Amino acid sequence: MLLETSQNESPIESPTMLAQDDIPQPQPTIRVLFVTGESAKSRLGALPETLATILNNRVHFECVSIHAAGEHVNANVHAVMICLSRNDNSSGLADVLDGVEMRNIPILILSDAPSTETSMDLSWNSLAMDESPHVMAAMLRGFFSRQLEIDALRKANHGAEIQTDRLLGEVTQMQDELHLAGQVQREFLPKTLPTFSGGAVAALWRPMNYVSGDIYDVRRLDEHHVGLFIADAVGHGVPAALLTMVIARGLPTKEINGNTYRIIQPSEALACVNRELLARQSNTTRFATAIYAIIDLRTRVMRMSIAGHPAAMVMRGTQSIEMVSCPGSLVGVFDGVQWSEKEIQLYPGDRILLYSDGFEFAFLDPPESQSSPHKGSPRYVNELHALLSITEPADMIAAMERRLDQQLLSANPQEKFTDDLTLIAFKVL
Question: Which domain range does residue 385 map to?
Answer without folding.
Answer: 188-428
